Amino acid sequence: MNKIVNLRDLYIQQSRELYNATAREISELPQLEAQATSQVLKGIITKQILKSMNQQVRLAEAMQEINASPEGEICVLTESILKQAQKNTSRAADHAVRDAGIITSMQQLIHRKLAGFGTTSSFAREIGQEQSARTLHEALIEAWEIDSALSELAEEVINKLAKTTLEEEKQF
After folding, report:
1. Sign of dihedral through CA atoms 122, 59, 39, 169?
2. pLDDT < 70 positions in the chain
3. What is the pTM of this model?
4. Which of 35, 131, 132, 166 has the maximum number of C-beta atoms within 10 A of its C-beta?
């Protein structure tokens, strides 16, 4: 592991972590999608997988612009969130509660991307990589759109269904 001595090095390191995070999402989100029962949630997860594929291409292009490989780092946070998501979905006793848990995990993944794409976009701009800064900012906007769709689904439908499950249990 090389020392990070300047902003360019930090930009590369953070971009590589994001690249790894997107790869993990591409490979593991289909499992969460299969466990979801809400068709809307399944659609959002599918959209996130497709966006992750596009984000991975953008990150590779950004790294190519500065003659760096997009590979070489592991995003431990993404790894941990995905591991916890599987644990939580296997423990959910009700489909609505499971969907609420999947939304929670999805938003944790997205929030990591919001931070990552926000900072890498800023770093790219600062080191003179304007095209990369723009494309990384586009990825940031896409992540925000997925996060908003997940929030709306949770607040308007899934959380209410999961709450109803709790209220039904109290009656017995």
Report:
1. negative
2. 1, 165-172
3. 0.91
4. 132
